[in-house]
Amino acid sequence: MQGSIGLAEPWARDTARPMNIESPFESMDPMQHARRSLLSTVLALAAAAVFVIVTSAGLPEVVASHFDASGVPNGFMPRPAYVAVTLAIVVGVPLLLMLPLYLASSGSGSRLNLPNKGYWLGPERRAETVAYLRRQAHLFSVAVCMFASYVHWLVVGANGRQPPQLSSSALRVAVAVLLAAMVIWLAALYRHFKRGV
After folding, report:
1. Does 22 reside within a domain?
2. Residue 85 above 90 pLDDT?
């Protein structure tokens, strides 16, 4: 019996050791993580652009592009102009939303408006702080892109009806979801940077 216990002891010791399973993101340099996030964002915007182009093919030559509160069209434009404007909104606006943060976080980051800036932009935290802000900017930009893409889809559906009619209820739900996402996003930012105050 004593010998069997001795044989079991190495196995018991091995299983008692904590397993050191490291996430690939944990070992990744913060800026490398931010660059991967940027690549994912660019791919999402490219997919949205393809979505707009493909789904616009079935639109009429003159598109009902603007609607009143009840979903009745009160503005029209040629299809090529509609596609161009929609691409500018779906892709261009999210890119413009990221630009100020990239400009502010370049160099020393002195233009960033953060609580306890000295703590978050100290030499040991600066790269992680900038990478976090850029990832959050990417997330917000993708959310805006998804919202704009959905509104475009509603316009496509509206133009498929005769007479054209936009689903006002669906648009209101989309706006509510976007606003809720923005509140959650801002709360997460506040909670993150509150730690250094």
Report:
1. no
2. yes
